[in-house]
Each structure stands twice: as C-alpha cells, then as structure tokens.
C-alpha cells in the first residue's frame, strides 16, 4: 500500500494536535489564589509611569493580602514589562491570558499601549482596568475594558479653560506628538474647546515619539509669538522641548496634561520647566483623609518616596478590582465584568469612582505648577 | 544687517543654524558608514550603536570631570573617541575579520547581529530608562537680535568641521591614508605592493568609530536624554546621508548629512511637520532617481 506523504500530513497533524492539546492547558490546579495580570512600562522611555503605577498597585495588593485577601484567597499579582515599546504589550497580555490564566488585567498608563492590549482582553472576555489611560478610544474597544480615571475630552476642556482664565493666554501654540494616541486626542479636544471659547491657535506643529530635536518646530513657534505653548506629550519629550525652547529664548509658560507627571520631567528639564503647568488626577497636597493616609502608607513602603498621580491610580485600579471581586463573589469573568461595571461611588485615593455607561470614571482634575523644582498644587477642576 | 523682531529672515537663519548643527552630527556618522564601505564594500550596521556607546562613555566619564569646563569637555570627548576606536577595532577583529573573503552578505548579516548585540546588551547593562546627559562643555547663549545660537550648537559645528578636515588630511596627506585609498581601489593589488591590509582595515574602523564616538557626545550635548536605542534613528538618517552624497565618497557623506539635517529642520518647522521623516527620506528617493550613485558619487573616483 502506498500513500503519498502529502495525504498523510493532515492526519499526522490532527493526531499530533490530539496528543498535544491537553498538554497545552496549564494546570489550573492552583485555585487557592486569585491571579491578576499587570502589564506596565517598567523600563524604557516611560518607565517612570510604569514604575509609579506598579508601586501603587503592589501596595494595594499587599494591603489586601495582609487583610486576608479577597473571598478568602490571596491575590497573586503577575507583572510583565513591555519596555515602553510598541508591540510588546500585545505579546505579554496574550501570555498573561493564555499561560497565566489571569482573571483580570490591570494596565497601562500610555493610551497607545492600552489600545494594543484592549482588543486581546476583549476577545478573551477578560476584564481589563486601565489605571490612567485617558484616550476615549481605550474603553470604546468593548464592554470588558474599563478605566478609573477621567478621559481626555474632559482634560482637554479643563486645560483650555485654564489657559484662558488662569494663564490669560489668548494666543497659544500647540506641539503635538503624532505617534501617540494620547497626545493626538488631547490636542484635538483642547483645540475644540479653546477655539470655541475665543482663543487663537497661532501655530500647530507636530513631532514623533522618540524625537530629540525640536528646534525646528520651536523656531516656528517663537516666530508666531504665542502667550503660552500647549505640549500634550509625555515627560521625556516634554523635558527636552522645554529645554530647547528656553535655549531659543522662548520664555512663555508651557502647559500640558497628565503625561508630564514624572520626576524625570524635573531631572531632565531642570530650570527649563519652572513656571510650567499641567493637569493631572491628584496631588499629594490635597488635604483629604484618603489622600493623606495613602501618602503616609506609600512613604512607609517605598523609602519616603511621595506618590504621584500614576501611583494613586495604580492603587485605585487594584482596589476597584478587588471591590468588584468581593461584590461578584466569584472570579468568573462575566460576573466580574458586571460587578466592575456596577461600581458606584467607590471611595478611592483619587476621589469617588463611579463607572459610567461608557466604562469610564468621571473625576476632578487638578492643575499643578512646577515651582522651585517641585510640583505645586494650583487649583482643582470639577467635572 | 539689522533684524527686526522675528522677521521671516531671522526665522530662516535660525532654522539654518538648527539644521546645520543637526546635519553636522549626521555628517560625522555618515563618514563612518562611507569609509567602511569604501574599504570593505559592506555597510557596518553596528556603527550607530558605537555612536550610542560613545554617548554612554561620555555620560559616565562626564561625572568625573568638573561640569561646564572646556578641558573637562575636551577630555571627555577624546576619551569617548578612544573608547569607541578600541570598540570599533575589536568588532572588526572578532566579528568581521573571520568572515573576510566570504560573500559580503555574510558580513552584512553579522553587522546586523553585532548591532542587535550592542543594543540589547546596552539595555541589559545600562537599563532601558533614558538618562540625563551632563553639561560637559561650558554653556552660554549668544543673541544677535532675535537670532539665538547656543554654545552647544557652535561646539557641534566647530568640532564636526574640524574632524572632517582632519580626516581629509589623514586620507590625502599621510602614508596610511594612501594605503587606505590603495585598498579601496584594489585590495589584491595593494597587498601585492606591500600594503598590510589588516592594519589598514583596523585603522579605518578605529577612525570611523572615533568619529561615531564624537558624534555620540555632540548629539547628547544638544539632546541630553540618552538611552541604549538612541542610535537607531540617527544611524538610519546618517546611512541615508551617506547614500545621498554617494557612498564611499567622503565630501559626499558630509554634504549628504548637511542636506538631510537641513531638510528635516525646514520641514519640521513648517506646517508639514507631521511628515518630517517621510519627506526627508522622499528627497533621498528623488535624488537617487536622477543620480543613482548619489550626489558626488562617481564610479572612477577614489573611494575610501
């Protein structure tokens, strides 16, 4: 009997699959813990975000476990690093879902990377809570994707009003990062509100993530003589932009969104970022009890380090998840999803969290100023 | 000439200076690509990562000299160039020389391998988090009307011009330079008349890598945030510049660097800033369509 090899191939494959498939499933045996996956930029360009957020999340998990865990089980946080690189998040989120079989995902700060992970979490029906991605598209991916922070339409509006009322800036130049979903979105919402309120955008320039030379754009901006410059980017680029702006003799204030929030803004930017403003989710200076207790606990855990907004949101994201697990009474993903969606007036560090119909949280924003090498509270903007 | 407040001409001149200082760094890097190509006929993709190592050498050395002094800056610059020269020679000795005589493609793939090794090894050793490059040279701003030139930009342009001139002298006025040109013209014939081809190639790598090291320091002075992947984009641009000017041709590499830096700056400052890189690379395609061997590349000219 003679079978050509080619006709045999499908059968061999089938047989192989039959043998291997059961082996592929990892032992789910370990039911004594609740596995939660976290993907964050622990190293790389936006490492400060990932590290802060991660520290907040770890603090929350440790607290929950010290108090006996949730549903009588300890929470096992599995953290993976995406090195701030595009493409990495989808790989590690797939790994967290299929290999580690996490019940829920926490992550990312940067909207572009949350947008990478969201479709994968949605397809696997694993609930994902982004601590601090503000681009509206993130939660629009599907009904399993949530966030515990405000979104950019609100942030952009708040910043436009702030520029007109506080900075008294009628003429604003905008410098947007075209390769970041966050920056493009925030810039768009700022434009809409600022023009509607009678402001004038005198120059609208672009750059890409990873750029180091902004002299060209800044020279054009300088010629347009703005009252202030809006830079809705991330701290690595913002610090360099501020430095080069000052070197070109531009003295007007720069302002931006929560992407600025990192100590690196001060170490790289130095004197150049003095007198600049940005909006964010929280300030350690807010005198409420929730904030002050959190600051105290964080300092005790991390050698006196003061938590920033990413840390506070990282903490809140884990707490909101734990609260939902408690209410659901199970880690079944569909029930857990419904429980997260039903979150109402949850008291967190960054204020009351209620998840709305679009799976976003609406919260107040705070405006901070860089003063004497420190972030100083300026004002709070209610939603 | 008196400049009125930010007249278009001031803006133009300011952009010209911006472009010049960016282009000077591309030119320094492009020289390394073009020299190795001239002698060995392959593209040393690890060149951009030697540039990164130069910058990290400057970062560590810069913490041991008083900040903002001329001698401190110069000694850091020279030490980084030396470190890169040694690294370049080592890369040639251990990665490329064993493959010499084989197909060029093998060496090319090895070059990509060395590049990946340096990039990922760099992330392992230095970490992927960006660091702040110290201000090693004294810093001042010169103001002419609304035209502002920083001392960093001047140092970049001056050092680059000096190094390019020195390179021309080495290649056209020394015995080693003559040997390099001979190897470039015909390696077998050069060997027959007694040129030690190993020494010449090692020297070429030392020279090219030293220029990359200098480029690394100068780049980080202007853009003081460094990370192990910082070489990728400037490397690509410098490679483009080398091709633009005619690969293998030294004045061509310098010219290509300046054109690319200028184009990037002027487009970056216009309303088309979104397409900055796309247009810069588009220019390359257009020029190559009309002059396939680059702006100054001619097949018969001495290539080093």
Largest sheet of chain A: 7 strands, mixed
Structural class of chain A: alpha/beta
Major sheet: arrangement of strands of chain A: 7-6-8-9-10-13-14
Biggest interface, chains and residue tallies: A-B, 34 and 41 residues
Instruction: Based on Cα principal axes, name the global outline of chain B.
Output: globular
Tell me the major beta sheet of chain B: 2 strands, antiparallel
The mean pLDDT of chain A is 90
Termini Cα gap of chain A: 78 Å
Q: How many DSSP H or I helices of chain A?
A: 13
Q: In total, how many domains does the architecture of chain A comprise?
A: 2
CATH homologous superfamily assignment of the largest domain in chain A: Response regulator
- Number of helical regions of chain B: 11
What's the total number of strands of chain A? 14
**Oligomerization:** heterodimer
Ranges of chain B with pLDDT <50 over ≥5 residues? 1-5
SSE string of chain B: HHHHEEEHHHHEHHH
Please bin the fraction of helical residues of chain A.
Answer: 40-55%
| Strand fraction of chain A | 15-25%
CATH topology of the largest domain in chain A: Rossmann fold
Structure description:
- The complex is a heterodimer of chains A (383) and B (304).
- Chain A has 383 residues and is of the alpha/beta class.
- Chain A has two domains: 33-150 and 288-364, 3-Layer(aba) Sandwich (Rossmann fold); 153-280, Rossmann fold (3-Layer(aba) Sandwich), CATH 3.40.50.
- Chain A has helices spanning 5-24, 47-66, 88-98, 111-124, 137-140, 152-165, 181-196, 215-224, 235-247, 263-269, 289-301, 309-328, 333-341; strands at 33-40, 74-81, 104-107, 128-130, 145-147, 171-177, 200-207, 228-230, 254-256, 277-280, 346-348, 351-353, 365-371, 374-381.
- The model of chain A is unreliable at 10-27 (pLDDT under 50).
- Helix content of chain B is 70%, strand content 4%.
- Chain B is built from eleven helices and four strands; from the N terminus they run ααααβββααααβααα.
- In chain B, strands 1-4 form a two-stranded antiparallel sheet. A two-stranded antiparallel ribbon of chain B has the order 2-3.
- Chain A binds chain B through residues 43-45, 47-48, 83-84, 178, 204-208, 210, 212-213, 215-217, 219-220, 222-223, 225, 236, 239-240, 243, 247-249, 264, 267-268, and chain B through 6, 8, 10-11, 14-15, 18-19, 22, 123, 127-130, 132, 141, 143, 146, 148, 150, 152, 219, 222-225, 227, 230, 233, 264-271, 273-274, 276-277.
């Amino acid at each position: 009997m003679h079978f050509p090899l080619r006709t045999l191939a499908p059968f061999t494959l089938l047989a192989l699959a039959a043998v291997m498939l059961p082996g592929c499933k990892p032992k789910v045996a370990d039911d004594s813990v609740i596995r939660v996956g976290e993907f964050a930029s622990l190293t790389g360009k936006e490492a400060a975000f990932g590290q802060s957020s991660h520290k907040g999340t770890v603090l929350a998990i440790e607290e929950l476990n010290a108090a006996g865990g949730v549903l009588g089980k300890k929470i096992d946080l599995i953290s993976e690093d995406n090195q701030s690189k595009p493409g990495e998040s989808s790989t590690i989120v797939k790994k967290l879902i299929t290999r580690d079989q996490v019940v829920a995902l926490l992550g990312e700060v940067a909207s572009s990377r949350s947008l990478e992970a969201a479709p994968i979490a949605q397809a696997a029906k694993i609930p994902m809570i982004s601590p601090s991605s503000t681009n509206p598209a993130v939660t629009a991916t599907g009904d399993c994707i949530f966030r515990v922070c405000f979104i950019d339409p609100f942030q952009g509006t708040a910043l436009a009003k702030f520029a007109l009322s506080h900075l008294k800036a009628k003429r604003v130049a905008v410098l947007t990062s075209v390769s970041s979903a966050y920056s493009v979105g925030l810039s768009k919402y700022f434009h809409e509100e600022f023009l509607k309120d009678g402001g004038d955008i005198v120059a609208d320039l672009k750059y890409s993530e990873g750029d180091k030379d902004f002299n060209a754009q800044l020279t054009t901006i300088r010629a347009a003589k703005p009252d202030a410059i809006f830079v809705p980017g991330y701290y690595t680029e913002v610090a360099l932009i501020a430095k080069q702006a000052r070197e070109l003799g531009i003295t007007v204030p720069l302002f931006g969104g929560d992407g600025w929030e990192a100590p690196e803004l001060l170490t790289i930017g130095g004197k150049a970022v003095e007198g600049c403003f940005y909006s964010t989710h929280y300030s350690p200076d807010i005198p409420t009890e929730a904030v002050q207790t959190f600051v105290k606990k964080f300092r005790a855990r991390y050698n006196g380090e003061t938590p920033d907004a990413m840390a506070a949101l990282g903490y809140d994201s884990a707490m909101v998840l734990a609260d939902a697990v408690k209410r659901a009474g199970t880690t079944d993903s569909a029930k857990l999803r419904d429980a997260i969606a039903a979150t109402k007036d949850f008291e967190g560090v960054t204020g009351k969290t209620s998840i709305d119909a679009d799976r976003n949280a609406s919260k107040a924003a705070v405006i901070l100023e860089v003063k004497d090498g420190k972030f100083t509270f300026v004002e709070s903007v209610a939603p | 000439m008196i400049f009125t407040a930010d007249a278009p001409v001031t803006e133009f001149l300011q952009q010209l200076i911006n472009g010049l200082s960016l282009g000077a760094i591309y030119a320094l890097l492009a020289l390394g690509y073009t020299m190795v190509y001239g002698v060995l006929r392959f593209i040393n993709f690890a060149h951009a990562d030697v540039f990164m190592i130069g910058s990290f050498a400057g970062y560590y050395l810069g913490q041991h000299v008083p900040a903002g002094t001329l001698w401190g800056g110069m000694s850091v610059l020279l030490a980084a160039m030396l470190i890169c020269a040694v690294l370049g020679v080592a890369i040639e000795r251990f990665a490329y020389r064993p493959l010499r005589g084989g197909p060029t493609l093998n060496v090319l793939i090895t070059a990509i391998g060395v590049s990946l090794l340096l990039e990922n090894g760099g992330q392992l050793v230095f970490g992927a988090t960006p660091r702040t490059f110290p201000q090693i040279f004294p810093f001042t701003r010169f103001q002419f009307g609304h035209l502002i030139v920083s001392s960093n930009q001047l140092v970049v342009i001056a050092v680059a011009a000096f190094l390019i001139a020195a390179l021309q002298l080495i290649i056209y006025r020394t015995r080693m330079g003559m040997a390099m040109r001979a190897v470039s013209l015909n390696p077998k014939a050069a060997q027959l008349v007694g040129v030690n081809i190993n020494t010449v190639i090692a020297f070429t790598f030392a020279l090219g890598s030293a220029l990359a090291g200098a480029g690394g320091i100068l780049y980080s002075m202007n853009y003081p945030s460094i990370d192990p992947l910082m070489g990728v984009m400037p490397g690509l641009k410098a490679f483009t510049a080398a091709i633009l000017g005619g690969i293998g041709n030294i004045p061509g590499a310098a010219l290509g660097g300046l054109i690319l830096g200028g184009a990037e700056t002027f487009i970056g400052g216009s309303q088309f800033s979104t397409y900055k890189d796309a247009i810069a690379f588009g220019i390359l395609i257009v020029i190559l369509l009309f002059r396939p061997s680059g702006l100054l590349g001619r097949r018969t000219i001495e290539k080093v």
